[in-house]
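Subject: Sanity check before I submit

Could someone independently write out the structure tokens for this chain? I want to compare against mine line by line before I put it in a report. The sequence has 517 residues.
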Amino acid sequence: MRNATPTLARRYAFKLLANMASVPVYLVMEAILPRALGPAMYGNYSFATGLFQQLSGFLDMGTSTCFYNALSRRQGETGLIGFYMRISLAVAALTLLVSLLMLIPDAGGLLMPDVPLWLAPPAALWAFLTWWGRVLRSMNDAAGVTVASEMARTATSLFSAGLLALLFLNHCLNILTLFLQQYLMLAVTAWAYWRVTKRHWRAQERALHFRLDGMQRRAYAREFFNYSHPLFVQALLSFLLLAAERWLLQWFDGSVEQGFFALSQKVGMACFLFVSAMTPLVMRELSIAWGKGDRAAMGRLLNRFAPLLYVLAAYFSCFTLAEGPAMTLIFGGDQFAAAIVPVQIMALYPLHQAYGQLAGSVFHAAGHTRILRNMAALECCYGFAAAWFFLAPPELMGLDLGAAGLALKTVLVQCLTVNLYFFLASRFIPLSFWRNLAHQVWSLMFLLPPAFACREITMSLDMGGTGSLLRFCVSGALYTALVFGICALFPPLLGLSRRDARELLARLKKTVHGSER
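---
Independent answer below. Compare away.
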């Protein structure tokens, strides 16, 4: 572990830098798309693409995770890539076939109420390309070429943001040109990832095998089936739950509320970008540790990184919660003023998203996919009940809260589910569940008050009011300084002992002095 730590840290640094470069894409999209499309069309775009993204996730059925874990453990086995290409083609064909069936008025009108049916095929293509890009990116992570892969992603992300801004400034941005811009970005990104893969295997003097004999195909099919068939139920239930809750929002409240929820979702995703850089890398280390039978190493990884990633997510979430009105005005404009409450609620979503990915990584790495299946069945029950309660009108025993209700359901259900995952993981991994649970609560007590205090301080100054970009930036800078000070004075907030903090500081000083020489 000691020798692997610098490599993991270096790969995380490049992933984090690439995610930081992706932030402009999200910020540009969320500052431009709502204004260019308006709440209704923005809601239609989000609903259609979200539906097919969930379909692609269902058709995946955990095979991409099996592929990632297998390639992490057997990096020289290039036949895995050739086999998974065939699975990817099947996912593409089925996704596009469903989109064509949606053009039938009876089917499309039922599944996409009040949404133009012609959006189905372009949304399906977008969803597949997005899924395929994640597969190629994870393949590079598994092969250990994260640095080159993330450099390629950084370049394409910045190019995409510039192209989108150019379309908007020239008044050429509409739903059709948006899809074309997205296709170009996703295709270029996929091509860049594939170039990195080919260069890596060429350097390793290994050939990519696309032609497999009958014995190889049967062996790979058996391996993927044994890993993924318990996940079929999980994938089906997750697809049905996610699609059903968005459908309920569309059916009860329409495209405008869908647009409000979409904006809140995108703001939450932007907060999570900084955290998501680490989770695939930790998952890789967990998979390797499980392959060696080293459960203690898995426990050390989780106890070290879970609190750290939670606080990193909480840093962004608490500030977004406090500055919800400003975030909504800056990124959505006056048309989205009613989205303030959903944005503030969804600001808390990244908190347990990081924990959820880490907890899920334990079961994926260990191959305990039946637990994931059973948890998905349980979540489907209380998740749909919560969605109905928050979204249905009073005459149907609901609260009729619209986008705010779906945001509230999303955050509460995820909090419960993730902690159940962590509890189950602690039964076979040396993981301190109760310490992590307590940390989730008291760390927010350290971060929420400074966020609201910075907002009130800057609001009391003459900086242009709630939606002022200057006031927002000053508030963020002040909040960042306060959080850094709190972490320096109290390292347990980051899950570090004072000894760990001193060792980390000494390592940083050594690195700085070494670079100066």
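---
OP: Matches mine. For the report I'm noting this point. Residues 1-6 have pLDDT under 50 and may be disordered.
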